[in-house]
Amino acid sequence: MHVRMEKRAKLLERGGHPYPVGVERTHTLEAIRAKYSELPADAVTGEIAAVSARVVFVRNTGKLCFATLQSGAGTRLQVMLSLANVGEDALSDWKALVDLGDHVFVKGEVISSRRGELSIMADSWAMASKALRPLPVLHADLSEEMRVRQRYVDLIVRDAARDQVRARSAIVKAIRDALHGEEYIELETPILQLVHGGAAARPFRTHLNAFDQPMTLRIAIELYLKRAVVGGLDKVFELGRIFRNEGVDSTHSPEFTMLEAYEAYGDQFTMAETMQRVILAAADAVGSRIIETEHGQINLDGQWRWLSVYPGLSEKVGTEITPATTAEELRSIAGAHDVKIDPLWDAEKLVIELFGELVEPTLIQPTFVYDYPPSAQPLARPHRDKPDLIEAWDLVIDGKETGTAFSELVDPVIQRERLTKQSLAAAAGDPEAMALDEDFLRALEYGAPPMGGLGLGIDRLVMLFTGVGIREAILFPLMKPE
Predict the structure, then answer these.
(1) Are strands 367-370 and 392-397 parallel, antiparallel or unpaired?
(2) Where is the Aminoacyl-transfer RNA synthetases class-II family profile domain (predicted)?
(3) What is the structure's pLDDT at 140?
């Protein structure tokens, strides 16, 4: 860095500028590659092009210097600087001042070298941006920690990092396009909220000075989208950031992206169809409905399985479990299968935890897990046929929960009872329990139509399609301070 700082100073001393406001670029590297893809060896075109990109290779050999430039998209092009074309001073400055990582401006004729390499034979060059830090050596210096913490460096040196960003962008675009195609309206709802709700999670807390009011960052998008449906927007969705002040591991981040969508007169089954269409659109955007994972091949085509919670758990443990099974019996089953539990958990919580530990990891093909006990989702409506259950499902793919949906609870009386129970749990010290949201209840009291709603974890979906962990699925993940 000291040497590079000296080169920066020399540029300034000579009246040059290490960081000009701009350069007169006429072509991108991609445009030149596309136009002259068939140029034979040792050919000239007569076309003068001015390009600017990052130097990723240099070879300075006497009267002829070679460099490889790389665009932001990863496209590369050779440039050649000869004494005869640029002159002694410009060639000397190139040798003395240019380092790997610099952005340079080069103007000259598009040619092909004797070896057939598409090139620009420069007649002038200028510094476009001086890099003060050297690029890492890919295999020696670029650890996973550095790749994640300094993503900008990762993007410079690794094609796979740039491909990952493009894949995520394609997935998000495909999801948006699929929903817009079904006449959904995309909304933007508050991230800063007075009351945290819509999920059971620990919120980030902050303070609004203007109102001298404690606030939270949202833990879900749900409650405001439902308000919009009450107001007559029958099909709505939002793709946005969610914040939960919880653990960080290979599948969880405190800041992540969710899709939530709500449809008037829908239910858990119509939302399952929407979920399947959205995921297939994302799969098509990245190339295949067949996914290879460490657990085997996943096929997204065809009918997706439906599995009821109680029969699924019963089959796994070899004992019939029903909503009437007692907490004591379930604790015994947990002990027999080495599942760690909290002795204060009731029967419903124990069923949910046992299923999550014993059954969910075995569900590799897409599976809608449904018929949950009521405490699993306080915002889902009671089952139309089974009084001890709710109308809700989780979509499990590759052993991980990827999305969820409900036939939404729109009865304001029952919803008030459930939220009151949650608020009492919060008052008793449960950091994940929802608070009582009077404005949301007021909205329901104006009459919410029957509706279905879904939530899809975008980061989990990206992980599924690209085979990376959550720290690489998110472009700039939260990291411990250096």
Answers:
(1) antiparallel
(2) 168-481
(3) 63
Find out whether 394 is annotated in a ligand binding site. Answer: yes
Provide mean pLDDT across the span 13-34: 95
Nearest Cα to 52, choosing from 120, 1, 3? 120
CA angle 249/377/235 to nearest 5° reads 100
> Phi, psi (5° rounding) for residue 174?
-65, -40
Q: At residue 44, what are phi and psi to the nearest 5 degrees?
A: -120, 155
CA pair distance 125, 131, nearest whole angstrom: 16
The answer, yes or no, to whether residue 138 has pLDDT greater than 70, is no
Angle 268-286/159-181 helices, nearest 10 degrees? Answer: 140
**Predicted TM-score (pTM) of this structure:** 0.91
Question: Is the distance from CB of 433 to CB of 423 less than 8 angstroms?
Answer: yes
Residue with tokens 């969910």: 360
Tens digit of pLDDT for each residue in 151-181? 999 999 899 999 999 999 999 999 999 999 9
Strands 290-293 and 296-299: antiparallel
- Token code pair at residue 84: 């005869």
Tell me how crowded residue 84 is: count the other CB atoms within 10 A of its CB: 10
Q: What are phi and psi of 139, to 5 degrees?
A: -85, -25
CATH top class, domain 156-304+365-473: alpha beta
290-301 per-residue burial string, b: 16 or more CB within 10 A, e: under 16: ebeeeeeebebe
- Between CA 80 and CA 68 the distance in angstroms is 9
Give the architecture-level CATH label for domain 2-135: Beta Barrel (2.40)
- Domain positions in the chain are 2-135, 156-304+365-473
What is the identity of the amino acid at 342? D
